[in-house]
Design goal:
single chain, TIM Barrel, 2 domains, 12 helices, 8 strands, 44% helix
C-alpha cells in the first residue's frame, strides 16, 4: 500500500506534471473498494445529501451527518488523502464557528483537508482556517450551495469579464492560505489559465483536461446514479443494470423456494434433533 498523500506530495505532483485522481464517495464499503483501486484522494462531498438521501440539492447535509460519513470513509480508506466537505451554514456564520466545525472533521473523522465552497466573502474564513493549521481546499467556479441564492447552476468563466474575476479570485484564495483549489464547472481554457497561474494543485470537476487532478462521483463512475448526468460526467461501468438483475434473480429464487438451499443453511445432526424432540413438551 503506497503512503498516504500529503499536501506536500500534491505540490510535488503538480511540479512534476503528474496528474492525480480524486473520487467522491460516502460510505465504508465503497471507500475500501475505491482505495484498493488506487485513487490518490477521496472527497466526502455534501453531494451525499443527493446521492445517499435523495434530496434535490446539497443543502440538507448537516455537520453531524457529514462527520459521521467522513469517519466511515476514513475507516474504509485509512491510507488515502481524505477531503471533508463543509456543508451549508457550517462556515458562513462566523470564522470561529468555521474553525470549530472544520476541527471536528480533523479530530472526529481524521480528515486531511477541509473543502469550503468559496466566493470573495469567504476569503477571511479561508485565512482563519489556514492560520489555525487546517489545510483548506477552496472550491470556486460553480458552487452547488449557491443554488439557494442563484436559483440555478451554470458553467462559469464562459464570458471574459466573469473569467477575469474567477482568475483573480483563485489568486486571492491562494494568497489567503488555500493549499488546494477545486474548480467546478469552469470553461476549460480558463481552468488551464488558473492551473498554470497558481502554485497549488487545482482539481477539476467539469473544468476540462488541464487541471492537476480530476474528480468524479463514484456513483457516476460505476453507473448507479439515478436521473440525468451532467455533461462532464462519464460512466465506466453499468452496475445499475447488474444490481437490478441480481435482485431480480434473488426475488425469483425466494419465490421458487430455491433459496435458501442446504448449501446456504446451518444444520443440526440427527442425534441432536432426537435429543431436542425428547426435551420438547408434547403439544396439548
Amino acid at each position: 500500500m503506497p503512503k498516504k498523500l500529503t499536501t506536500a506530495d500534491l505540490l510535488n505532483l503538480k511540479a512534476s506534471g503528474t496528474r492525480f485522481s480524486a473520487i467522491s464517495c460516502y460510505d465504508f464499503t465503497t471507500a475500501a473498494l475505491v482505495a484498493q483501486a488506487g485513487t490518490e484522494m477521496i472527497l466526502v462531498g455534501d453531494s451525499a445529501a443527493q446521492i445517499m438521501l435523495g434530496h434535490s440539492s446539497t443543502l440538507p447535509a448537516t455537520m453531524d451527518f457529514m462527520v459521521t460519513i467522513t469517519a466511515a470513509v476514513r475507516r474504509g480508506a485509512p491510507d488515502v488523502c481524505l477531503v471533508a466537505d463543509m456543508p451549508f451554514l457550517s462556515y458562513q456564520v462566523s470564522k470561529e464557528e468555521a474553525i470549530r466545525n472544520a476541527g471536528r472533521f480533523i479530530v472526529e473523522a481524521s480528515a486531511d483537508i477541509i473543502k469550503v465552497e468559496s466566493s470573495a466573502a469567504q476569503l477571511d474564513t479561508i485565512k482563519a482556517l489556514s492560520d489555525a493549521g487546517i489545510p483548506v481546499m477552496a472550491h470556486i467556479g460553480l458552487r452547488p450551495q449557491s443554488i439557494v441564492k442563484t436559483g440555478k447552476l451554470k458553467a462559469e468563466g464562459t464570458v471574459a469579464t466573469d473569467a477575469y474575476e474567477l482568475i483573480l479570485l483563485a489568486d486571492r484564495m491562494v494568497l489567503a492560505g488555500a493549499s488546494t483549489l477545486l474548480l467546478e464547472g469552469t470553461a476549460s481554457r480558463v481552468a488551464a489559465i488558473i492551473t498554470d497561474r497558481v502554485n497549488v494543485p487545482v482539481i477539476g470537476c467539469g473544468s476540462g483536461p488541464h487541471c492537476d487532478g480530476q474528480i468524479l462521483l463514484i456513483s457516476d463512475i460505476i453507473g448507479t446514479s439515478q436521473g440525468h448526468l451532467p455533461k462532464f460526467s462519464k460512466k465506466y461501468a453499468e452496475l445499475d443494470t447488474a444490481i437490478i438483475n441480481a435482485v431480480k434473480a434473488y426475488i425469483k429464487n425466494v419465490q421458487s423456494l430455491s433459496f435458501p438451499d442446504d448449501e446456504h443453511s446451518y444444520h443440526i445432526n440427527s442425534a441432536e434433533i432426537e435429543k431436542l424432540k425428547d426435551m420438547l413438551e408434547p403439544r396439548q
